[in-house]
Amino acid sequence: MTTETFGPYGIDQTEAAAAFVLSLARNRSVVCLAGEPGAGKTTLIKAMCRLSGVIENTSSPTFSLVNEYRTIGGEKIYHMDAYRIKSAREAIDFGAEEYLLSGHRCFIEWPEMIEAILPEDSLFLSIEPAEAGRIIRMGH
């Protein structure tokens, strides 16, 4: 299996990194981003939303767990932050599967917290620190 990587990249190349992730995602609806706090997951997801046609302000759903956005074409995009979720059961109880199985694009931060309920074809990526910024790696 080939490992796809992007970077190292700096903050000024976030949009190029977002385009890379979207090209990897192709027809997959669930895109998972793992990384340490401050790795740039939210920043990257904001850029992916912009490139996907979201014109409204985007923000981290740390406390709401899921934010819903609409593209200029009317498509829904979900941004989920699973950091505060303690188990797959808790995720199921709050309705995570509805988002994950909706067929709409769903960008997830901290996917390891809900890995047991993620669709098999989910795209898993990690953002790692590098000497000159960050590196995105496919896989987890």
Q: What does this entry look like structurally?
A:
A hairpin with a 5-residue loop joins strand 3 (66-70) and strand 4. This protein has helices spanning 14-25, 41-51, 88-93, 96-100, and strands at residues 5-9, 30-34, 66-70, 76-81, 105-109, 123-130, 133-138. By secondary structure, it is of the alpha/beta class. It has a seven-stranded mixed β-sheet with strand order 1-7-6-2-5-4-3, with helices on one face. Helices cover 24% and strands 29% of the residues. It has a single domain (5-138), classed as P-loop containing nucleotide triphosphate hydrolases (Rossmann fold), CATH 3.40.50. The model has no long low-confidence stretch (mean pLDDT 92). It contains four helices and seven strands, in the order βαβαββααβββ.
What's this, in brief?
With about 140 residues, this protein is an alpha/beta fold.
